[in-house]
Amino acid sequence: MSQTALVTGGTGFIALYVVKLLLEHGHHVHTTVRSLANKKKCKPLLDLQTQYPGKLALFEADLLSHGSFFQAMQACDTVYHIASPFLVPQQIKDGMKDCVEPALNGTRNVIVSVNDTESVKRVVLTSSIAAMYGDSIDIHKMERKTLSEKYWNTTNTATTNPYSFSKVVAEREAWKMYEAQDRWELVVINPGLVVGPSLS
Q1: Which stretches make up the NAD-dependent epimerase/dehydratase domain (predicted)?
Q2: pTM of the complete model
């Protein structure tokens, strides 16, 4: 059965694969980008639009702008929230301002739009293994030294490892917002390593 899904951050590595796979499986896809004017960045998506006519719609959205995902979310039953700020350590001047607040507010903004969009029944959030543990020593405290969804990274902070901490804060907020309603379900993916050929 054909469904309509929203994929946030459509030009990103993971998101582009998700968009492509959804289209290959016959679904309609809405995806968001920072700027539709950036044709070079949007080219892989524009190519997919040509390959799958009438199946892929592109929308401009800003993670930090309240309500900017609402239009893209209309008529969608699933939201794949993949967009998130990513900075290499050298780019981070203020961990809270540069990493944590954008990740938290971005997740919050997307889920507020989910709550306002009756058609959405499932949210799939891309988090990170970094939300489960911060330092390798943490694994020794885990049952059978195995990561699972019952563990949270408690060692990183906005100053010690802001990227990892941002993943903890954003995922916790997603679960909190999920628990406050009963219409949609939440699935969280925590990849440890992302590799493969680029589609862009």
Answers
A1: 5-198
A2: 0.94
